[in-house]
Amino acid sequence: MVQNIRDMDELKALLKSAENKLVVIEFSAKWCGPCKRMYPLFHEMSVQYRNVMFANVDVDNARELAQIYHIKAIPTFQMFKQAQKVTLFSRMKRTICCYRSGSLSEPYLADDGNE
């Protein structure tokens, strides 16, 4: 399930409740074509990977969060672990590209305890 985040209080609550889980946040907008195309895959991954928490921030409705997290283009994905931002974009991008190209029969996110 993808949780919608509207402000910093909701984001802090999500990160706190995640404890040791990876949190993937998609920054997007309703009018954004690539965001609309990404939504089904992002939602599918949220259902499949219960050990990961997924959230969405609509940059038009949460301008403060977009500014704080330096969102310059959408969709943008940011990942957090133990409330700290981690750099995993290249792995997520590679996973999505492989999944869409048919190289993977289903999305794959490693759960090796290091992410």
From TrEMBL:
* Annotated ranges, domain Thioredoxin: 1-115
Q: Which residues form the signal peptide?
A: none
- UniProt KW keywords: Disulfide bond, Redox-active center
An example Pfam family from this entry, by short name, is Thioredoxin
* PROSITE patterns registered for this protein in UniProt: THIOREDOXIN_1, THIOREDOXIN_2
Instruction: Spell out the PANTHER family in the cross-references.
Output: THIOREDOXIN-LIKE PROTEIN 1 (PTHR46115)
Q: What is this protein called?
A: Thioredoxin domain containing 8
Q: Which organism is it from?
A: Monodon monoceros (Narwhal)
Gene name of the record: TXNDC8
